[in-house]
Amino acid sequence: MTATVSFTIDSPLGPRTATVAYERKGAGEPLLLLHGIGHHLQAWHPVTDILAAEHDVIAVDLPGFGASEPLPAGVPYGLGTVAPALGALCTALGVERPHVAGNSLGGLLALEMGRGGLVRSVTALSPAGFWTEGERRYAFATLLAMRAGAKALPRPAVDRLSRSAVGRTALTGTIYARPARRSPAAVVAETLALRDATGFEETLAAGGSVRFADDVPGLPVTIAWGTRDRLLLRRQGVRAKHTVPGARLVRLPGCGHVPMNDDPALVARVILDTARSATRPTG
Hints:
It is built from eleven helices and eight strands. Helix 1 links the parallel strand 3 (29-34) and strand 4. By secondary structure, the protein is an alpha/beta fold. 41% of the residues lie in helices and 18% in strands. Helix 4 (133-152) packs across helix 7. The longest helix is centred in the middle third of the chain and has 20 residues, at 133-152. The chain has an eight-stranded mixed sheet, with helices on both faces.
């Protein structure tokens, strides 16, 4: 069941209050799950139960997405605000240095949290921020087209399209390698989440100048890329490995940009292996 929590964040305008929606289940070391731009925490549902067998799993709607409120007026959606805000969220939930797994924008935020010492391990699935300028323009144009399409479709048309495999592919084939596997209800919900995301434009604008260029030393990092990612091409994973040389680079065969639905067992195993390595004895 989704709950909400309000907490104070630091911003260029001074302390402000943010309110975030989240789901929490399981027991064990905490594991924070971060979705991509225009998505919502339900993106993680295919793997949540597997992860919750070992972890206290906290899946969140990022500010301005899903059921979370937008950031207060004038507060920027850049890494320098949102990553520390997620640290403040963890404090509000009584969690200290969780493991974190993120997809796309969430993967970039996970790496930034790792760089800032806010987490104990990082799993980044097709993280943003390792693009060339041409690749960034392509990804942003694709995202804007997806957003425009979601906003243009009347709700009855979304419902109708979701009921067929061809329709589900039309709605979500850009981000999933196997879109027909999505349930009609899930496709409707994520299409509406993309349509209604109040933080979409400001997040996209903030990402225009983002290049992740720093190492993340001192903790386990896994960077995983779907072989059928059509949004952020898998060669960006090689750049990510060069940037974070201590990271484990993992190939996700047959997976698209949002791999949790394409191969839940594989994605869960990658996340769990990364978290386990944070506590594994060395030597």
